[in-house]
């Protein structure tokens, strides 16, 4: 009998994005250029995990769309104490999926330059990366 479970996987990633703003007096969240959100399959108000490359600070918050093409990565509210302009961050979009959903999921890793312009996007079909395992 096969167990039914959920797996927490990375469905999208903005790799080494540059923080452009940190606004302590804002209610909370992270503002991300809408083009970058689309590239990494991040939807408005979706929870994301943000890690600071320089100091290993990790924060979970929700994403709000910024202006398209502006390159905005702005930490709002309390994380503005942990993330400052010019810091490099990794932003992960995570999802809980069933084995069936996993079999059809493609994860997108978005690489960008220092101005948050997309340099390349890697797409990984997760089922193709999975090693053969006994049932």
Could you outline the blueprint of secondary structure elements for this entry?
Blueprint: E1 7-18, E2 21-23, E3 29-33, H1 34-39, E4 47-52, E5 58-66, E6 73-76, E7 88-97, H2 99-104, E8 106-112, E9 118-125, H3 126-129
Parallel strand pairs: 1-8, 2-6, 3-5
Antiparallel strand pairs: 1-7, 3-6, 4-5, 4-7, 8-9
Which runs of at least 5 residues are low in confidence (pLDDT < 50)?
none
Could you give the order of strands across the largest sheet? 2-6-3-5-4-7-1-8-9
Helix content: 10-25%
Please name the CATH architecture. Answer: Beta Barrel
Average pLDDT number: 93
Which H/E pattern describes the elements? EEEHEEEEHEEH
Q: Regarding CATH, which class?
A: Mainly Beta
Structural class: mainly beta
**Inertia-based shape:** globular
Major sheet size, sense and barrel closure: 9 strands, mixed
Total number of strands: 9
Distance between the termini: 9 Å
What count of structural domains? 1
Number of helices: 3
β-sheet strand percentage: over 45%
Which topology does CATH recognise? Barwin-like endoglucanases
What value does the Rg take, in angstroms? 16 Å
Brief characterization of the structure:
With 135 residues, this protein is mainly beta. It is built from three helices and nine strands, in the order E-E-E-H-E-E-E-E-H-E-E-H.
Question: Overview of this structure, please?
Answer:
It is a single chain. By secondary structure, the chain is mainly β. It has a single domain, classed as Barwin-like endoglucanases (Beta Barrel). It has three helices and nine strands; from the N terminus they run E-E-E-H-E-E-E-E-H-E-E-H. The protein has a nine-stranded mixed beta sheet. The model has no long low-confidence stretch (mean pLDDT 93).
């Amino acid at each position: 009998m096969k167990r039914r479970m959920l797996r927490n996987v990375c469905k999208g990633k903005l790799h080494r994005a540059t923080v452009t703003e940190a606004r302590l007096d804002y209610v909370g969240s992270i503002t991300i250029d809408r083009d970058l959100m689309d590239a990494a399959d991040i939807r408005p108000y979706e929870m994301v995990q943000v890690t600071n490359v320089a100091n290993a600070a990790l924060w979970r918050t929700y994403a709000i769309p910024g202006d398209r093409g502006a390159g905005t990565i702005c930490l709002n509210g309390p994380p503005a104490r942990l993330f400052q302009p010019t810091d490099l961050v990794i932003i992960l979009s995570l999802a809980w999926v069933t084995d069936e959903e996993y079999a059809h999921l493609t994860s997108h890793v978005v690489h960008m330059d220092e101005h948050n312009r997309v340099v390349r996007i890697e797409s990984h079909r997760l089922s193709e990366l999975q090693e053969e395992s006994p049932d």
